[in-house]
Design goal:
The protein is an alpha+beta fold. The protein has 2 helices and 4 strands. It has a single domain, classed as Alpha-Beta Plaits, CATH 3.30.70. The strands form 2 sheets. A two-stranded antiparallel sheet has the order 1-4. A two-stranded antiparallel sheet has the order 2-3.
Length: 86
């Protein structure tokens, strides 16, 4: 299982989640070149260790455990994975 960032992150990209991630699996970080051009942040499903540290840090409640993503945002599981395939 992994965590997923969903629609509420779009246009917000608070990055509090980036700061608390112990394995740096959330990108793009504010220091990365594509931070400004990406609409949201993404969690790498292969790197995520399922610690859950990011979830309570999100001010817009955009982060969910993979098995708890609301139905209207279930597609974001694949969107997060696809970001790391590019």
């Amino acid at each position: 299982m992994t965590y997923v960032i969903a629609e509420p992150c779009i246009g917000v990209k608070d990055a509090s989640c980036v700061d608390v991630c112990p394995v740096d699996c959330i990108h793009p970080a504010p220091t990365e070149p594509d931070f400004e051009i990406m609409a949201q942040l993404y969690i790498d499903p292969d790197e995520c260790i399922d610690c859950g540290a990011c979830e309570p840090e999100c001010p817009v409640f955009a982060i969910f455990a993979e098995d708890a993503v609301p139905d209207q945002w279930v597609g974001y599981t694949q969107i997060n994975a696809d970001y790391y395939k590019r």
